[in-house]
Design goal:
Blueprint lengths: L6 E5 L5 H13 L4 E5 L6 H11 L6 E7 L4 H7 L5 E6 L7 H8 L8 E2 L3 H17 L3 H32 L1
Parallel strand pairs: 1-2, 1-3, 3-4, 4-5
The structure holds 5-O-phosphono-beta-D-ribofuranose.
């Protein structure tokens, strides 16, 4: 496996970190090297564009962009690279994340951003989607992803068995 980071995670603000930590955990579990930065489409636009322009040459394979409110980070980054860009819309007041969801997902034709679930689940899913993209060209990662799915299924089946036992005993 490559020792250089292949996944870049850009977050619009340090305040996004609690959600992004869920991405860190997944990528660590899969043994995938990543780099993460606080970088904003609005507050540090030149840095975001430069990062995206150089990402492919720097060895990245996929970029996760995390942003809330008028969430333009994914779109701006996607406009400056041909790498797949995953957008994670952050929930915030007063619109509960609908603003970020639409800003992330409603890209004009020609520059796609793959939007994932908002919130904690989005942190996990953004990383899992990056893993799935990398698995296309890496048999070891693909095998780990299959095992992850197998373990997840086993957990749900075990939870159902526990529920059935509880229902039988109490109702
Ligand atoms: C976005 O604005 C960030 O991604 C964050 O979700 C939101 C609020 O940022 P802060 O005011 O917390 O820095 O750009």
């Amino acid at each position: 496996m490559s020792q250089k980071p292949v996944v870049a995670i850009l977050m619009g603000s340090q305040s996004d970190l609690p959600v992004v930590e869920n991405s860190f955990k997944i990528l660590k579990d899969f043994g995938i090297k990543f780099e993460a930065h606080v970088m904003s489409a609005h507050r540090t636009p030149a840095d975001a564009c430069k990062f995206a322009e150089n990402a492919e040459n720097n060895g990245f394979k996929v970029i996760i962009c995390v942003a809330g409110m008028a969430a333009h980070l994914g779109g701006v980054v996607a406009a400056h690279t041909i790498l797949p860009v995953i957008g994670l819309p952050m929930a915030s007041e007063p619109f509960g994340g609908m603003d970020a969801l639409l800003a992330t997902v409603q890209m004009p034709p020609g520059i796609p951003v793959a939007a994932v679930t908002s919130g904690k689940a989005g942190g996990k899913n953004a990383a899992l989607y990056a893993v799935a993209i990398l698995a296309l060209g890496d048999a070891e990662i693909a095998q780990k992803l299959k095992q992850f799915r197998f373990d997840q299924t086993a957990k749900v089946k075990s939870a159902d068995a526990e529920l059935q036992a509880y229902l039988k005993e109490n109702f």
